[in-house]
Amino acid sequence: MSEALAQAYASATETPVLTVRLISPGITGGVISFAQSYRDITGTLEDGVTDVVFEASGAAINWPKAGVEGAEDISIQLENVSQRARAEIKAAKAHFRETGVSATVELRQYLPSDFSAPVGGIYKALVTDTQVDRNVATIKAAFHLMIDMSYPRRRYYAENYPGLRLV
Q1: What gap in Å lies between CA 26 and CA 45, rounded to an integer?
Q2: Chain centroid offset of residue 107 CA
Q3: Can you tell me the distance from the alpha carbon of 50 to that of 31, in angstroms, rounded to the nearest whole number?
Q4: Which one of 22, 41, 47, 114 is most buried, by most CB atoms within 10 A?
Q5: How far apart are CA 129 and CA 144, in angstroms?
Q6: pTM summary value
Q7: Tens-place pLDDT, residues 107-132
Q8: Residues ≥6 apart with Cβ < 8 Å to 124
Q9: b/e string for 16-31 if b means 16 or more Cβ within 10 A?
């Protein structure tokens, strides 16, 4: 945990603001951003240059449970009163059906006194499922999809690594 984030939690004077960015080519503009806040906020991404407007939203996050199963699913719930989340998620799903390109989600935290850079790590996950009703849009994502991955990930073939010989 970063020093600024640890200090914010320890002093309880500033509660970090959680932000969610849903990224998909099917979404209008390619990205939709929400903040767990009562007002829209403008935050600078980790590159120090790009400013993003995060729309005010009631957001809840269910982090992965600690366990031995290896499940790394995260559940994000966004308020859907404006119906914007519903329309954008529907567009992202349609794009996935056509192209097979999955949406991704990014989670960042900012201190209310400083939106010039996120504190702590930036969590990126691949969207695995979405559910939308009149009031809530739920996005389920996984940090690492281990299914259908070979071990080791890097294969040492002679054509890629000169000097190796086939045995």
Answers
A1: 22
A2: 4
A3: 13
A4: 22
A5: 14
A6: 0.72
A7: 999 988 888 889 888 888 888 888 88
A8: 104, 105, 106, 107, 143
A9: bbbbbbbbbebbeeeb
